[in-house]
Amino acid sequence: xxxxxxxxxxxxxxxxxxxxxxxxxxxxxxxxxxxxxxxxxxxxxxxxxxxxxxxxxxxxxxxxxxxxxxxxxxxxxxxxxxxxxxxxxxxxxxxxxxxxxxxxxxxxxxxxxxxxxxxxxxxxxxxxxxxxxxxxxxxxxxxxxxxxxxxxxxxxxxxxxxxxxxxxxxxxxxxxxxxxxxxxxxxxxxxxxxxxxxxxxxxxxxxxxxxxxxxxxxxxxxxxxxxxxxxxxxxxxxxxxxxxxxxxxxxxxxxxxxxxxxxxxxxxxxxxxxxxxxxxxxxxxxxxxxxxxxxxxxxxxxxxxxxxxxxxxxxxxx
Length: 318
Prior knowledge:
There is one protein chain. Strand 8, helix 9 (233-245) and strand 9 form a beta-alpha-beta unit. The chain contains ten helices and twelve strands. Helix 1 crosses helix 2, helix 3 (57-73) packs across helix 10 and helix 8 packs across helix 9. It folds into two domains: 43-145 and 280-309, Rossmann fold; 147-276, Rossmann fold (3-Layer(aba) Sandwich). The protein is an alpha/beta fold.
């Protein structure tokens, strides 16, 4: 009550108490929740979306899914993209969105991990959710798939096709989903008694070019793999491109798999076997949860975690 009186300039508070409250507000980086005061009880009308400024088919697919769901819900999106990943920049963008009237925040990786692990998320005063991250986060709600199990499933399928020298091209290991997918790949190799060769594990950047570079390194090495598990469809498309240019017959000489089931999966040759993330369902679940959390402040987004089912989509690349 005292803090409310000081921030809203209502009630009574002595000068010493006021100074202490303002000092705490400054230290914590607290932002008064102006947008929450405008809620009418019908949910949220304006949602801030934070995403990476990348040339990524997956990011574009996720943005499109969120935009469609927002339109169906009558929600206005305020989209902010970032080129870099310092936590201070993420928090600054989130605060600006709140200042401009965002009543809730929706995050895409890697900003979900950044803000979701920082207690300053609570000082924003509005519900926050993330989609397509890889693990529960303590200060925000998460809606995701089980990335580890998904990667294990696609690797098992490659093993069932008779492949034994199986390499992996991961995304950046700072991303929690990259780490989870790598563990799923390792799980499948272990359960089939296959060696985990460090030389067959290459870190990519979730980009087409990094897939090309990783494939060239792997396929021109002393023990080239007969299968490559790529951490997303962009990199898998790069692997296919490099393999074709090296004169390999696909999939006879090399199996390739992707992840996400973006439009790229059916626009390359051979079409990709991949993991389908239910992005539209994730976006809808996140929007519904944010609306409930804004309408009913007693609902906490802290630590909420919903895991939706993934699908292994088999095509011609294995």
